[in-house]
Amino acid sequence: MQSTWREPVHWDDKKEVSRTKDGLLFLSLGAIVASVPLLGIGFVGEIIAVIGAILVILGREAFGEKHSKYVLASTVIYLVGFLTTAIFALAFTDSLVSTTASTTSNDALRASLSNSFNQFLIGTFIGSIISGGGQVLFTYRIQNKRGRVFLWTGYASTLGVGIIILLAIMPQISTALVQAFSNGSYDASPLLALQSQTDAFRLLNIVPGVIFALGYYSALVRIRMGEALRSNSSLSRAARV
To answer: Is residue 61 a contact partner of residue 4, using CB atoms and an 8 Å limit?
Structure first.
């Protein structure tokens, strides 16, 4: 399959290619750092990844119309996934506030909180499904077969980690809530223990983070080596003009 990339002839093209290469490097680093389930480290990784994404967006036109459209479409998809997660998080917070303020029965409170926790976990999983699709498509048009395998494998492993967390944590929420209210007053330690267990499972996100990083870096190496240029002799002639 021939690439849609054309070797940059004008200065603007070269500048956009340079931005894309820098962006792919930032994305590779950000994908790994953001997967570490520690608030400070993960947040820094997200910032690095955002910088990389912005650079790839700014440099998209040098790689052809199809790549440019894929970049923009995948950005929209990713933002939809992010907003989906944010909406469920806000709904979860609102539910916690309203439930604790209006419910006097411990049994009713446990049931309501359990339902809110389950909806939040499912909502974040749905958000990760949508956002993951955007991650796959973001660099899809400048990838070779190996790079695309990395992207799809990273996506599949992201979903796998999400399913593992759902299956492992959701059945324990109700039990943890029962223990939290077992003495007639609220004891946070069972829920904190469940949170610690969830964080331990989130360490698995390092696996898809590394795989996505390999995918982004594969595209970076491909651009550096001029592989797409060699695959199309007509573009090679144009670059020498």
So the answer is: no
Contact present, 161 and 205 (Cβ < 8 Å): yes
Q: Where are the domains of the chain?
A: 11-239
Query: Rounded to an integer, what distance in angstroms lies between the CA atom of residue 238 and that of residue 7?
Result: 8
Q: How far apart are the two ends of the chain, measured CA to CA in Å?
A: 25
103's CB contacts (< 8 A; 6+ apart) are 109, 112
- Please give the Cα distance from 217 to 231 (Å, whole number): 20
pTM for the predicted model, two decimal places: 0.81
Taking a C-beta distance cutoff of 8 angstroms, is the pair 131, 75 a contact? no
Average pLDDT over residues 116-139: 92
- Of the candidates 145, 125, 153, which has an alpha carbon nearest to the alpha carbon of residue 31? 153
Angle between helices 106-138 and 65-102 (to 10 degrees): 170
DSSP state of 36: S
> Could you give the count of Cα atoms lying within 13 Å of 139 in the half-sphere of its Cβ?
36
Size of the chain in residues: 241
User: CA 146, CA 148: separation in Å to the nearest integer?
Assistant: 5
Q: Count other C-beta atoms under 10 Å from residue 89's C-beta.
A: 14
CA angle, residues 20, 22, 28, in degrees to nearest 5: 100
- 128-158 pLDDT, tens digit per residue, is 999 999 999 999 999 999 999 999 999 999 9
